[in-house]
Automatic annotation (TrEMBL):
SUPFAM superfamilies: F-box domain (SSF81383), Galactose oxidase, central domain (SSF50965). Residues 1-19, 40-53 have a biased composition (Low complexity). It comes from Urochloa decumbens. Residues 80-126 form the F-box domain. This is F-box domain-containing protein. Keywords: Repeat. The keyword Repeat applies. Residues 1-53 are annotated as: Disordered. InterPro entries: F-box-like_dom_sf, F-box_dom, Gal_Oxase/kelch_b-propeller, Kelch-typ_b-propeller, KIB1-4_b-propeller, SCF_F-box_component. The keyword Repeat applies. Pfam families: Beta-prop_KIB1-4 (PF03478), F-box (PF00646). PANTHER family: BNACNNG10540D PROTEIN, F-BOX DOMAIN-CONTAINING PROTEIN. PROSITE patterns: FBOX.
Amino acid sequence: MDAAAAAVAVPPRAARPTSPSRPPKAIRSTKPRGLDEDTAAPPAFPKGKSPSSAAAGGIGIGAGSAASLLLHHADVPMDAAVWAGLPDDLLLEVLARVPPFLLFRLRPVSRRWEAILHDPAFLAAHAAVPSHGPCLLTFSRGGGGGAHSPPHCSVLSIPLHARYKLPFGFLPPWDLWLVGSSGGLVCFSGFDRAAFRTIVCNPLTQAWRVLPDMHYNQQRQLVLTVDRSRRSFKVIAASDVYGDKTLPTEVYDSKENKWSVHQMMPAVNLCSSKMAFCDSRLYLETLSPLGLMMYKVDTGHWEHIPAKFPRSLLDGYLVAGARTRLYLVGRIGLYSTLQSMRIWELDHSRTGWVEISRMPPRYFRALLRLSAERFECFGQDNLICFTSWNQGKGLLYDVDKKSWSWIAGCASQLCNSQVCFYEPRFDTSIF
């Protein structure tokens, strides 16, 4: 090994703790301006592979190399003259491949680098690179959880095995709760005194917008979806029952900056309040009539899908997968007997659910120690995340790889918090 190779060699890191309840080890690092790095759980790497090669396999070769350098070589001296003379086009290509959260470490380097992050050329290069991997966003209120309590928000980068605190002081001090995230934007809803409000923001750029009032401005079930090709987003308010009145479906279009009223959902008995949005369609579970209600955003009409639920299903969650894939996740069994967690996929051609996986018993017992314990389930692309309210644990399932893994270091974050998948992006605008 020559001197140059020895200078960039990365020593192997310790294996991840096998117990999901064991607290992660804290690492010391320089706090970036704008974001504070919290704690990081050391990941486990296969034998013979360095952390840099494992990171490259999870988030791309260029992004993995840059992330490895920033995470493990923060104190390695670099020739300032080389970076000072780097052409702007080459610098943009390098920065576009660095994970977004780590870019905040580079902002204090110079005014030139600070300005580059707002340059349209950088945003275009950033939009052209693939995503740097999934993140989990947790949102909670401090203190007693009242309207004046400051919000606490953090993001866990699964490929980087690091958690970052997000400053959300730029939002109005309203009583907000997390609706969801899509394409780099995050949606909140809540009350400003007596009025129901909806806010969409980009946490990285701290740009935000208060949406105009709906025609029937009451507390609604909302879904956010971003259309990157149109550079726009939509918020869908599903049909709800408010008092003795059924509210129609409303859709907000950021291009028009207004809500439009669409068809009212036919009279149904909803199975749960959980919804899933995939392939420009919104799905809800119904008991009467049995099956699903599907809302087509492009046509604005509801349609019933007679897909019968599996037998002995105790609680089911609809989870959106990649493209047209729709999953049903739930427990099978009785509260007084053994249970199991299973995953089904909707067969659109046969209009039925096909079982594709079962949670191993050891994971099920660790996630839900009590048979009636509550859990949450949500997904992005072909990743499904399970969280336990009482145990404060997170479990991740990769549908493509058919692999289960604990999300280390999230016990204190999941208790009394709202969680969703989040894709950090600088180039997604709310205007």
